[in-house]
Amino acid sequence: MDTIVSVAIGAALTLVVVAVHYARGTGWEPPADISQDVLEQRAAAVPETDFPEPMNRSIGGGAAGAIPSGEGGAELAEGDEEEEDEGFDPEAIADDEVEYYEIEFAKEGETIEIANNENILDMGEEEGWDLPYACRQGQCVSCAGQIQDGAALDYIQHEHNEALFDDDLDDGYCLTCVAYPTDDFTIETGEQP
Ligand code: FES
Fold first, then answer.
1. Whose C-alpha lies nearest to ligand 1, atom 3?
2. How far, in Å, CA of 145 to CA of 173, rounded?
3. Which element (helix H / strand E) includes 131?
4. Ligand 1, pocket-test mutation among 140, 146, 161, most atoms within 8 A of CB
5. Where is this chain compositionally biased, Acidic residues type (predicted)?
6. Atom of ligand 1 nearest to the CA of 121
7. Which one of 40, 109, 115, 142 has the largest count of C-beta atoms within 10 Å of its C-beta?
């Protein structure tokens, strides 16, 4: 009988000690939630772009196409390009100013006429050729081709170029999705610098 009473008293005391312990709390407090701050800081560190990000890597471009590679810190031709192409709007070309040029697609083995308000990529696709592209906005190099006759800007003008360097342009590379002819030329499609 004494044993039972002792055990009951022990159990009761244990319960009292446990209850007192939890009633006082542990003093622990959860750390402040900084996840939103971290997200905002990361967002601020990433440069803004209008480029549709998923398209960047999903269609034909790949990482190599998304960011142009330059040698020795070469700068984008964007500054020069913008200066040169600034204000160029193919849709603003009046009907009586439309001119046609003979563009030879070397790999496709055909020459077609393309107007100065039509881009190389669109016209090639109209022929049924499966030409590479991704953004169609001059922001990657997926659609690049190489003009065989000389520096690209002697033969086309870009509506928009955020991907090619001066050296690339001098080597004849152009972005076919935003390239409009200003002369006859031969182009190798699917050639990137
Ligand atoms: S498809 Fe990206 S620049 Fe032409």
1. 138
2. 6
3. none
4. 140
5. 77-92
6. 4
7. 142
pLDDT at 36 over 80: no
DSSP β-bridge partners for residue 128: none
Q: Per-residue DSSP letters for 136-177?
A: SSSSSSTTEEEETTS-GGGTEEES--SS-BHHHHHTTEEEGG
Is this structure's pTM higher than 0.90? no
Paired tokens of 164: 């090619």
Look at 33 and 113; give whichever has higher pLDDT. 113
Q: 56, 48, 54: which is closest to 137 by C-alpha?
A: 56
pLDDT score of 22 = 63
CATH number corresponding to 58-189: 3.10.20.30
* pLDDT reported for residue 33: 76
Residue 174 has pLDDT above 50, yes or no: yes
SS3 content of the chain, % helix, strand, coil (to 5): 40, 15, 45
Q: What is the pLDDT of residue 183?
A: 97
CA 98/CA 116 separation, integer angstroms: 6
Q: What is the pLDDT of residues 109-146, one digit of tens each?
A: 999 999 999 999 999 999 999 999 999 999 999 999 99
Contact 131, 143 (CB under 8 A): yes
Question: How many CB atoms are located within 10 Å of the residue 77 CB?
Answer: 25
